[in-house]
Specification:
- The structure is a single chain.
- The chain is an alpha+beta fold.
- The protein has two domains: 58 residues, no CATH class; 115 residues, Alpha-Beta Plaits, CATH 3.30.70.
- 32% of the residues lie in helices and 28% in strands.
- The strands form two sheets. The chain has a five-stranded mixed sheet, covered by helices on one side.
- α2 crosses α3.
- The longest helix is centred in the N-terminal third of the chain and has 32 residues.
- It is extended and about 70 Å long.
């Protein structure tokens, strides 16, 4: 029986061994002249997409449950062990992947009594110090930053009050990056 016949038929279950023009979807449909084939294929695709979405949701739920929630990583412990200088506000890990790390150094905002204006030379030295501490921690974990092609960057910024429209202003100082090809720390403004 073909889809071009004027008769209607009901098909349910997997296709038969012989190719009789059935679309191969597992659904019950009344198929009529021309338009029924489109509906059977459409409902079959919806059914397939729903099954795939359910499987994906199950896998993501299992993965989310398997993730540790309260244990700090060795990198987080190393960063928290760095003693903050008087003009530093905090150091934050903004990205932590197996071969990529990004940290952010926040200086105390301008306008406070104890927050002097930070120079670029000072920001360079500070970000290199933090990047060096992170590289030391990675070596303690048994990683070889050059061989493992570790992507590390430490950014520095300072809040500088508010602008004319009331939006917060930020002074970006640049970043120190680890170049695994030359095995060096480089400052990039």
């Amino acid at each position: 029986m073909s889809f071009n016949s004027a008769r209607a038929y009901v098909r349910s279950g997997p296709p038969a061994a012989a190719d009789d023009g059935w679309c191969g979807m597992v659904c019950s449909q009344v198929v009529e002249h021309g338009t029924g084939r489109f509906n059977a294929i459409r409902w079959g695709k919806v059914s397939t997409m729903l099954r795939r979405a359910l499987i994906l949701l199950t896998l993501l739920t299992v993965h989310a449950v398997a993730q540790p929630t309260n244990e700090p990583t060795p990198l987080a412990q190393a960063v928290s062990a760095i003693k903050l200088r008087p003009n530093w506000q905090r150091i934050e890990i903004t990205e932590e992947k197996p071969t990529g790390y990004r940290l952010q150094l926040y200086y105390k905002p301008l306008g406070q009594r104890d927050s002097p204006v930070v120079s670029r030379a000072e920001a360079t030295a500070d970000t290199k110090e933090i990047a060096g501490a992170v590289l030391d921690e990675l070596r303690k974990e048994g990683k070889d930053p050059a061989k493992d092609r570790i992507d590390l960057s430490v950014w520095a910024q300072q809040d500088a009050g508010k602008g004319m429209t009331g939006k917060p202003l930020t002074r970006p100082f640049g970043r120190t990056v680890y170049n695994y090809k030359s095995d060096r720390l480089e400052y990039r403004p």
